[in-house]
């Protein structure tokens, strides 16, 4: 039986997997961090569910989806994650889940402190700042040095907790959307607990490419997407709350749609994308058949390593994401060192080399170019990127 890490480099196997995705002619997509593709089979099932719900309308939704199917789907998702169904509430996206967790966290008093870093997603940062303003709290923000190391990340939080003993709640991004840095979540949460700090985990980019154990990591509150690395239709996400901590998150906007105690009252209420949710069992089955997050993550990292090894040898290019296997995944960022603004090079990559990438700003490392491989990315795509970087590095 081949090892998963060996299978990650089996081009024959992954070529067959890539053929499951329909890819339009045009630029090579190295911006797979925005959202993931559905396989052809999932897209067909989604369309079938759209047609079905359009025909059956509220008859099916009222009689089946609201009462039993939504609970069955939640249980299926919980089984994949190895958590209790009562710990999950379905949402439209990770941002909805995270914003609700932040604004409804009950353990804050005027004068307490909140902690964020320079790598949080904008909607998380905005929500934390809003809560601080509304409740008379102090915002503490730390920046992480680049290139980061496992110890430098831990030391950054250790120093923050020591210097600011009134921190009660912090945001923590598992996989940062700007540079692709993977945070040592379990170690940071253990450190936070020593200082009486609760953590709200942004897992939007982690689920589907990193194999993790939520209870084992000590996670109490988290939000996730299913339309990035799991491969579900857009508008699917969920909230996770450790059932023993449910009382620490108030019902969202006073929701009483379900008898208390119920995590579903903590999520924003509204009509969901029902056809998308009905397609999730097929999505999850394909994910598991492929080997789950471990197998997918190993493949994505192997593709990433192909171009990063070359990029690190090129003058004038700095790869910002470390090579410590604990700290990276599919997403990796670089910059051309002679430029402060990387957007012109994003445009060159697209215009001259047919490569779609994206510039990211806001972190202490400054403007960077995010390059994200995906499940349909081929070695030929990577070779095209390597050629572009070689030529652009020499001007």
TrEMBL record:
The Aminotransferase class V domain, residue ranges: 58-385
Keyword Transferase (UniProt): yes
One function term, GO molecular function aspect: transaminase activity
Keywords: Aminotransferase, Pyridoxal phosphate, Transferase
Pfam families given in the database record: Aminotran_5 (PF00266)
Protein name: Aminotransferase class V-fold PLP-dependent enzyme
Organism listed in the record: Pseudomonas lundensis
């Amino acid at each position: 039986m081949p090892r998963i890490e060996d299978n990650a480099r089996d081009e024959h196997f992954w070529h067959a997997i890539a053929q499951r995705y329909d890819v339009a002619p045009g630029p090579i997509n190295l911006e797979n961090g925005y959202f993931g593709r559905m396989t052809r089979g999932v897209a067909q099932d989604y369309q079938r569910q759209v047609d079905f719900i359009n025909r059956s309308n509220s008859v099916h939704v009222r009689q089946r989806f609201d009462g039993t199917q939504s609970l069955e789907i939640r249980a299926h998702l919980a089984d994949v994650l190895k958590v209790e169904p009562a710990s999950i509430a379905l949402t439209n996206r990770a941002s909805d889940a995270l914003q609700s967790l932040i604004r409804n966290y009950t353990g804050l008093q005027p004068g307490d402190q909140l902690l964020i870093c320079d790598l949080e997603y904008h909607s998380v940062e905005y929500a934390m700042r809003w809560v601080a303003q509304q409740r008379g709290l102090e915002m503490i923000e730390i920046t992480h040095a680049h290139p980061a190391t496992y110890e430098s990340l831990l030391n950054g939080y250790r120093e923050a907790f020591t210097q600011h003993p009134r921190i009660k709640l912090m945001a923590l991004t598992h996989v940062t959307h700007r540079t692709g840095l993977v945070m040592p979540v379990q170690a940071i949460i253990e450190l936070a607990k020593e200082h009486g700090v609760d953590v709200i985990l942004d897992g939007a980019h982690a689920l589907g490419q990193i194999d993790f154990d939520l209870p084992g990591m000590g996670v109490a509150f988290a939000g996730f997407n299913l339309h990035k690395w799991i491969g579900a239709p857009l508008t699917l996400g969920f909230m996770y709350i450790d059932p023993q901590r449910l009382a620490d998150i108030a019902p969202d906007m006073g929701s009483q749609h379900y008898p208390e105690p119920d995590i579903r009252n903590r999520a924003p209420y509204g009509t969901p994308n029902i056809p998308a949710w009905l397609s999730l069992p097929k999505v999850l089955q394909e994910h598991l058949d492929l080997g789950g997050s471990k197998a997918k993550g190993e493949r994505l990292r192997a593709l990433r390593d192909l171009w990063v090894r070359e990029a690190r040898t090129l003058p004038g290019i700095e790869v910002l994401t470390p090579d410590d296997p604990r700290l990276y995944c599919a997403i990796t960022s670089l910059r051309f060192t002679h430029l402060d603004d990387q957007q012109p090079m994003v445009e060159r990559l697209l215009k001259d080399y047919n490569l779609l990438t994206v510039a990211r700003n806001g972190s202490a490392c400054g403007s960077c170019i995010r390059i994200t491989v995906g499940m349909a990315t081929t070695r030929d795509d990577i070779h095209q990127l390597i050629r572009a970087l070689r030529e652009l590095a020499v001007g």
